[in-house]
Model the fold of this input.
Amino acid sequence: DIQMTQSPSVLSASVGDRVTLNCKGSQNINKYLNWYQQKLGEAPKLLIYNTNNLQTGVPSRFSGSGFGTDYTLTISSLQPEDVATYFCFQHNSWPTFGAGTRLELK
Amino acid sequence: QVQLKETGPGLVQPTQTLSITCTVSGFSLTSYYMQWVRQTPGKGLEWMGFIRSGGSTEYNSEFKSRLSISRDTSKNQVFLKMNSLKTEDTGVYYCARNFDYWGQGVMVTVSS
Done:
């Protein structure tokens, strides 16, 4: 199975900051990488699919990039409603999730 | 609009069988893969398996021996059955259309 490692595990940032979350696969995942946002008590919500495609209805401050084993989710200007845990997910082979990055307000 | 909702028992005894139903609306089960994912305190988010639009299934090897996924297209329902439950199977179980739309999840506690 492909292991997905997210960093950092916890990130504190201020409103308006540019925020970058990282995800690294144990092998090449050919851009089959999704990002999900999960708020407390809710189901994961798809933000980005296949590395850099914004899901319908997701604010344009979210963007994704990467290739090979290394991928990034960027929030261009952090908003209070972005406080959540963010998971990366690969579906290049049998699907696996990262452990998540918890995003907090400073 | 696309909607998914899981229903299940809430509490299951160790060694017993878990049965969860996912009822969908706004799309056809014959057009999409349906996934099952769980979230446990010990292992986080885990893909469990899927049923293809054509009805065939694939399972995570972690669960293969005790998991079964099926569906009833006439009722717009997908079913998860997992036997030989252990306390570490306690968590929230989600169905998802492909991996874009997810249900709200159902909390399952395995305890005597």
Remarks:
- The radius of gyration of chain B is 13 Å.
- Chain B has no helices and eleven strands.
